[in-house]
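Reply to dn_fold:

You asked what the input looked like. This is it:
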Amino acid sequence: MAQSDSRRKKLQMLTRSLARKDIKAAQEAICADQIDPRIGYRRYEPENPLSLAHACAGEERTVGMPMGTSRFWLINRTLEQVSPASRQVALQFAGVMRGARQRVDELEASVGLCHAADGGPEDLLFMDVESCGFSGAVIFLVGMMYYRNDDLHFEQYLARNYAEEAAILTAFIDRVASARVLVTFNGKAFDMNMIRERAIFHGLKMPPEGPHLDLLTEARKRWRGRLPNCKLQTLERHLFKRNRVGDIPGWAIADAYHKFVDTADARQVRDIVHHNLLDLLTMAQLVSVILTGEDPMDA
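and this is what came back:
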């Protein structure tokens, strides 16, 4: 039978199954051709899965929970370790945070920006989450970045399965409670709302809200109408001339995590962790540009 005839027959089977509301049969018809209906590319099932320890070097951490203890995977690195050539980003960030070339009109600036400008580089905690979808979906990665000992440090909490979500949320809640200023990109509308929803789901208590600088709001004030949009990677390309190569697209992240949970192959989790790290790094560059009032597009 020709390939086109085979495809046509499978499509007919799928259509009939859906008409009968036979979901199981429909799923079998889809899987028969090994095409993932959610992302539209042929599934790759490696014979030898790459372990998490090899894909994302880190360590298991234990946290105390209301009903006992739980574990998660901690990935802890510095910018020097990840990309020595990017060290200038950390030095520039620290210099600006210590007052170099700062131009902030406190009468015009947002409360979050004023808090950031008044602090030192060690006072900011950057945060970005990766989840299995939108509102109510499981959060599986909480990435954070902070400045210590003349370098930017990346601290990423990974849930190795859905049950470890509560553990990474608990660890984040403990960490953010001591942060002087939280910095996010669209975190007021997305990241923090999701964390609150999932914390309630797990019966976790959130700390009182502290100063929060949302860089999406700041970016829209400055570049809306001058750029195609104000998405983080658009700003990254136009302001900092960085084009990501081989980066996992946002729409594929949830599916990649589901595959990791199902197969224990961590190849794409490595891509997600790197994607999260790059988002955090770009946020540090945005803070430097916004606090100095310098516009790379005018250079």
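Confidence is low (pLDDT under 50) at residues 26-43.
Hope that clears it up.
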